[in-house]
Amino acid sequence: MKAKKAVNRVLKTIFMIVLLMILIIQVYPLFWIFTSSFKTTGEWTANPPYTLPEGFYLGNYVKVIQQSNLPRYLLNSFIVAFFTLLFIVVLSSLCAFVMEKMQFRGKKIAFYYILMGMMVPIFIALIPMFQIYNMVGLRNTYLALIFPQVGFNLAIAMYLYMGFMRYIPFSLLESAYLDGASSFTVYRKIVMPMSLNATITILTFTFIGIWNEFTFSKTFISNAMMKTVPVGLSDFVAAYGTRDWGATFASISISILPTLIIYFVLNDRVIEGMAAGAVKA
Question: What is the pLDDT at residue 276?
Answer without folding.
Answer: 55
